[in-house]
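Q: Convert this sequence to structure tokens.
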Amino acid sequence: MVPVVRISVARRKLKAPALYEWALGALARRSHTLAEMDAKIRQRCADEGDVDVVIGRLRAHGYLDDARVAESHSAIRRDQGSLGRRRVLRELKRRGIEESIAENAISHAYRDCDESAMAREFLRRKMRARPGRARIREPRQLARLFRALARAGFESDAIADALREVAEDSELLESLLESASSSDTAD
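A:
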């Protein structure tokens, strides 16, 4: 096997007019938050003073709008990913969107959603590989599904509703939910 040699190619630093055109191309490929675009532009700019000029111009023309990105991202993650509110909020905050803007977009996107139904659908997709409709008996398997639902951003009540449909032993499920809620309050 021939080793792969990676050659680092220095990116050409751009002045304001070319930097603006480059930023438009980046925004044409996918939407970016203000924080994401600021970081990208800083990597490509020849002069730090051009960053604010380019960002200001992009905002003035309506190409950068964190609220619009948050609304779009929330709706997509709700519809295609069937993810819970908490997960989407974490993603938006990671993308640099202010918490108040993110929460507003999420509440708008999820206003007519039944999060318990979404959690049940998420669980059904997770369990497709299981033969038949056998109920879950093993604590480890139930705990694994609990963690998957929690990572997907569902609230405790929605997780409990979804797991009640598949857990064979309700006492086992209740002890799992109790231990999870006690660890949440300990944090």
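The CA atoms of residues 70 and 102 lie 6 Å apart.
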